[in-house]
TrEMBL record:
Pfam families: Acetyltransf_1. CDD domains: NAT_SF. This is GNAT family N-acetyltransferase. Residues 20-166 form the N-acetyltransferase domain. InterPro entries: Acyl_CoA_acyltransferase, Bact_Acetyltransf, GNAT_dom. Keywords: Acyltransferase, Transferase. It comes from Streptomyces vulcanius.
Length: 166
């Protein structure tokens, strides 16, 4: 029996792999929001406009990092961190392809992102998420994140978390 495993490594935000994962991530979270609130999927023009507007350039050293998880060598997920100030980094773009969920990738990606934030000098990691992303909220709680008060003005954010990186 062959054992399949995850490997996680930094990836340029604009690589073909990173762009494909960003497209998959954004399509899923956008479709979930529109289906819940408007009973429809994201329109093609809306999708292309938003994907293009959020390049991920902030996930580049020295102020950020994008990590890609590969499952059995195939790109399967991502997580990013970016410094907000000398001590605080934001966790963003945490995503695992649907067919690979439940195989342990998400906690590995988040822990690798925590390590990347520490390497950038952060002592605290913050994030936001939506109410309908119940899997994400459960993951963050399991990994020691504490729900806090609002820390940004993102109109789609409904839950905010923090974790001290000790």
């Amino acid at each position: 029996m062959r054992v399949m495993t995850w490997s996680i490594a930094p990836e340029p935000y604009d690589s073909p792999v990173a762009l494909a994962l960003w497209r998959a991530y954004y399509t899923e979270v956008s479709d979930r929001w529109y289906l819940l609130h408007e009973g429809r999927r994201t329109g093609p023009e809306e999708l292309e406009r938003e994907i293009a507007a959020r390049t991920g350039a902030e996930l580049t050293p020295p102020g950020g990092q994008l990590l890609v998880g590969r499952y059995d060598g195939e790109p399967g997920g991502c997580a990013g961190v970016r410094l907000l100030d000398a001590a605080t980094a934001e966790l963003t773009r945490v995503f695992v392809r649907e067919e690979l969920r439940g195989k342990g990738g998400a906690p590995l990606l988040v822990r690798a992102a925590e390590d990347a934030a520490r390497a950038l000098g952060a002592t605290r990691l913050i994030l936001d998420t939506r109410g309908d992303l119940v899997e994400a909220r459960a993951l963050y709680a399991r990994l020691g994140y504490t729900e806090t008060e609002r820390h940004n003005t993102d109109p789609y954010a409904e839950h905010w978390f923090t974790k001290q990186l000790t």
